[in-house]
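Researcher: Here's my situation. A collaborator sent me these components and asked whether they could plausibly form a single complex. I don't have experimental data yet, so a predicted model of the whole assembly would be a useful starting point for our discussion.
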Amino acid sequence: MIEKRTIRLSLGRGFIVFVFLVLAQVASAATAWATPTEKYRQAIEARAQGDSKGYFDILLDLASTHPTSRAGRRARAILTSSDAIFPIILGGLLQSKVSDENADGQKTDQEEDIPQTMERILRAQRDFRTKNGRFCENFQECGLSGPINANLVFFMGPKAVIGGGGPEDPDGLRLQALATMRYLGVLARSSKDGFLAVGLSNSDKDSDLEVWTIDHTGRLLHILAD
Amino acid sequence: MHRCCKLGFQALMLVTALLLVGSQALADVDVPRGFAALDAFESQSGQRIVVEAAILVHDVRDWEKAWKYRRGQLESFEVGREFFQEVDSNETGIPFKREIQALLALADPELLKVPAGIIVFSNQTKVPQMQALLKVGGTWEERWEQIQGSGRLEGLGISRMGSEIRIKRSNFEAVGFVDGKGWLRLAPHPASLQGGVNEGPVFLPKMNQRLGSPQGMVFARPGPLFDSLVMPFIANESLKGLLGGFKGVALTWEAAGAPSSRIKFLVDVEGLGTIGSLLSTNSRREPLVKLWDEDASGFLSISMPAPLLNLLRVMAFKTLEPVNLNASNLMRLAFSGFQGQVGLVDFNSPRDWALGAHFESVGSALNFVEGLRHFLQTRIGTVSDESESLLEYEKNSSGNESTLLIRPGPGLEGIRIANIGSGVFVVAQRSRLSKLRDLRRAQSTQENMVRAILDGPLSLRVREVVQEPAIVSGYTVLGGAGLLWELGKWFLGDLNVFAKDIARQMSVDAEHPALEQRRNWVSYIGLMELVFLLAYDCGLMIDVDGSVLITQLAWSDIH
């Protein structure tokens, strides 16, 4: 009797799990089958609910899977929007040079955060190479897992990442950073003979990021200004 | 970079579009040109009058359709549903919604359209008068009784005594009746209930032609009212002279079955006619736009009018006076060959844009790049000894392609200024420059021009606006999510702390007094942000045709 009941109970549980899995598959398929416009509306709903990660996730998916649809184009425009006013770039080019001189090299705290950390990464990489004959592949290996401002995120590879408030990515900064790096064509990487580390920040919580890179030769580049 | 510096041309166009997006309606595309309300007004008597201003619509139901469309769109989101629940419970929201709905209920449901208008006019007395008209049809009395019973007129101050209909509000009073043709006429004074025939046509032929077939319009014309209320207060003689030639101004709107809309702003000024030919001497088909490839998502092109081009040349020559002779001569030569056509394109990726200017020959374009190099060497040399590391110049072996790289600091990426044929281009990405040059080479052997934007999924209205040759034309796929929040935060005093909460559910922190006082504004900004996110693209054109200045803006929603 007991054995029969146990078997029935097991079958019952198995059936519930099976139904649950089927429903999950159906839900997943329904999302996948959504039209680009429906997906775009889902992204807006996620944004309105304060789910930044979900918002960027859907936009990225739209931009890559439906690039020629209206929703896909709109998603891409959001992900990459607001470069700058071009006349200001042109007119301000020389002016910025003069301003830099006048400011006597002083920058804001926010601007200093990334370059300083990038130099720390360079020093750590060089030390690691001296000891091990190769560059380290992630921050933990380099001993660089200390506290990082949640507005900053650093990459040494697509999955070698620190900052942005941790792996939960509460503000979607890591995802936004990946999207920006992708569109900039900047590939964070580390191998035996070289590395390219990327640092990004979003101090004003808008759609633009500040982007810096540093490589194994010590070349520090300011790719994009926020 | 400061926030305000990021509001590019795209953003400015978009905000303008959003502020006007409330006029969107759904209706048939095939709308008649003439406005029935104006015709009905002119048929009321044979007296000669001057129509000075008016608001005219072909079908008031469009307003209701537009309201339903926008509501349906917003209510598919939780924030929208919450907002409209509050609107419904408080009877707040769109101004005059109840009044318009009550008057619409008077209209015969069998009528295909419910035309209406408010007309400002003057007769021999030169006293400004006003009359409102609404087509309600012949059997309106039966519907009046039904509406009375339903309580829809409650609190609106609308009453009826025999054939007379009266509206009495704290700040407004009107009296009227329904005439034999089924038109409800209302006016602040009974004497204004009789219209008349306008002296001459309302608009001159060019303006009339350019108005097209809108669904509604607001216009103003010169007349006794204009002469007595505007002209005496203009002290500036030049402006007085210009206004003396003023023939009319109009704002029209159209929003058809597809969720796309267009507004036109037209001004007819006699003085423009004389300089109109000068303004359009340049070809208005911007040749640079044809160079853009399939990545392009927005552009702005300007064909500079001859007077402006000459002014620019004079300014450039003055700036070049103190510069060394070599640079000065090259730049002078180049500016002499500048055609006044400038194009700006966004390629939908960060730092991926191009600014182009058209010169008369490859030689002029080469002169410009080389002259600029000498000019910048001189200027940078005065503030830094790093001019060599900040400027990089190269020319290809055949001597017909030159590139100048300008770095903001040693080791930093900068911008490239280069010639492609007879055009000079400014780009931020080296790969973009290579791609544009490859396209140029390919086009010399191909008949088909690359016209990615026009080949894209444009709505009919936006396409019409973008395709029309104009002094200024522009198009963009909308980006900049969060832009309205940023503007709203400025408006509300930089409420960064609350932005996230507002975005989440439109309800706000009641403990913050400043925010609580502006709660309605916050809600409206939030909804506008949502409407903005649901819009897809917009196109703009500005042109002069004879004496008429035309500005058109069209936009469409995601669908």
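Model: Some features of this prediction you could bring to your collaborator: The two ends of chain B are 34 Å apart (CA to CA). Residues 99 and 543 of chain B are 39 Å apart (CA to CA).
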